[in-house]
Amino acid sequence: MDNRTIARHLRMMANLFEVANQHILARVYREIASDVRSLPYALKDQLDQYQDRSKLPEDQYRSLFALIHFGVKNAFQSLSVDVPTSLREVLALPGVGPDVTRAFYENWDITNLSDLKRALESGVLHPAKGISRRMLDLLQQEIPKLERRMRLIPIALGQSVAHGWQEHLLKIPGIQRVEWTGELRRQKALMENVELIVEAEMNTWHETLQELLKEGFVAENSHGAEARTELVQEYRLMMEADDKKIPIRLYFAENKNFYPAWVVTSGDQAHETYIGAKNADFTAELSLRYPAGAPDEEAVYQTKAVHFVIPTLREEGSVHKDPYSLVSYAALQGDLHMHTTYSDGANKIEDMVRGCIARGYQYMAITDHSQAAKIANGLSEERLKRQHEEILRIREKYPEITILHGTEVDIMPDATLDFNDEVLSSLDLVVASIHTSFYLSKEDQTARILAAIASPHVDIIGHPTGRMLGRRDSYALDFHQIFAAATTHRVALELNCNPSRLDLDPEILRLALSAGCLFSIDSDAHSFHDLERIPAYGISQAQRGWLPTDHVINTWSWEMLNSWLNQ
Asked: Averaged in consecutive runs of 10 residues, what is the pLDDT profile of the chain (567 residues)?
């Protein structure tokens, strides 16, 4: 759990204390959240040192300890607050703050999302102080969205759960290999379940099965494709992780069928049709469909007389794409969005420079937050000048990489930019992003981005739809207008590789590509470790969005990028 996630849960705790009218404690938790978010080190690794410095009261230290060591559910259950902690489900709804949540609880005995949903459906709720008819109508639209967010598994959580099960399953006798498959292997940003495929020895299968049953796995009578059920035995388990119920699906294949089974289970139904696994008239024996002992996945495709499909493309609409036309990590020449200790990053400028050099980049951009981002310690004009002076000194020390001085400037609710034209014109690169007022109308939200695109100083629109996976949906936008404007002004749209964002979504990337847009694939790193986000998450999303190399500005040479920046 990183510092930003810990701070987010602490702010939710503060909201619960507000609901309970325990305002002093609410303020204490908010102050700790702000402090944790700005720490230059990972709190989970140095909690004792943090406590030695901060001298937190026992209750607050216990909350931090529980969050880090025992998880979200345990931390909230142990919270000494005078209202049900399940009210955080209600507080997660857009526009519902502590005052409204308190009114729901005190007037209608609503303690969780299900209570609120039933009250809305029955017509029991009515407008009251702070609760308008419009709010009640909006809640009926937002509750299904929140339920979906609660159900779906963000990619980072899915990968974490998968890693844990891989380590655990490999300790069971008879299991030789465990790999990701299904939506997890296709790198979907939000998935229905975590799917793993196991290569097992059939002569020890009975013992292996007994171990699985002890873990709580149950056999699944699959209703899927015929080839899939012939190739594998399927088992399911429901587990909890990070306060979320996560379905685990295991496919068991014997050694000789492992690669055919891995190919089949990794794709959707369209992919199964592509490789001939769903042909209605295909009645040959399994040994003829998939000759035993295929040495790798490519051999399976060759057997089926179809072209190899990389895992990220094994789904409807993508199976026929040429993977060699798509962007790869090897093509990237730089990273154009990252943060340092000047704002809310954990590492200094020089640390980020060394990280980029280690990755072989030609260029990089330091883009700390602008002054309006108070929670992220945004830079004033004076601090921006001091940062520029430091970058000039560091450039002399590291001539092997071009270091751009930029900013992630806030697009304000009135569609202005947080720095004036004089400040923006002094910078090498400007990323413009929305960080506030997420629930404006579609027209107003679109107008904000259009105004930023029209600015002669803006080069990239950062995380354009504002989504936070599992926590916040994209805000409403008119993509037709935005894509047209971005193409006209030759402003790039960002694929933000923060695993909590992965914004733009692949489907929107495809639409933007068809409109002729340019893109920047950026880490939005807040530490040098975060530079790994591009190969770990971003490239797969870019490939899912069908992005070709030449439309990605940070695959360009420095000379080409510099020409574009100065146009």
From this structure: 87 95 94 85 85 89 90 88 94 91 93 94 84 88 91 94 94 92 97 94 82 86 53 85 88 88 93 74 45 81 90 94 93 97 92 97 98 89 97 97 98 96 97 93 96 97 95 93 98 97 97 98 95 97 97 98 94
Question: Regarding beta strands 244-254 and 460-461, do their DSSP bridges make them parallel or antiparallel, or are they unpaired?
Answer: unpaired
Topology of the domain comprising 153-319: Beta Polymerase; domain 2 (3.30.460)
Fold that domain 329-565 belongs to in CATH: TIM Barrel (3.20.20)
Q: Which residues of 223-244 are buried (b: 16+ CB within 10 A; e: fewer)?
A: eebbbbebbbbbbebeeebbeb
Domain limits of the chain? 3-151, 153-319, 329-565
Round to whole Å and give the CA distance between 236 and 260.
21
Six-digit token string for 430: 């400007």
In a 10 Å sphere around its CB, with 0-12 CB exposed, 13-18 middle and 19+ buried, how is residue 433 labelled?
Answer: buried
C-alpha span between 512 and 373 (Å, rounded):
28
End-to-end distance of the chain based on CA atoms, in angstroms? Answer: 42
Q: What is the pTM of this model?
A: 0.89
Supply the DSSP string of 78-127, one letter for each residue: T---SS-GGGHHHHTSTT--HHHHHHHHHHH---SHHHHHHHHHHT----
What confidence score (pLDDT) does residue 230 get?
63
Contacts of 446 (CB under 8 A, 6+ apart): 477, 478, 481, 482
The residues near 305 (Cβ < 8 Å, ≥ 6 apart) are none
Checking 384-388 for CB contacts under 8 A at 24+ apart, the result is 384/419, 384/423, 387/342, 387/349, 388/426
Residue 282 pLDDT: 39
Gap between the Cα atoms of 172 and 196, Å rounded: 15
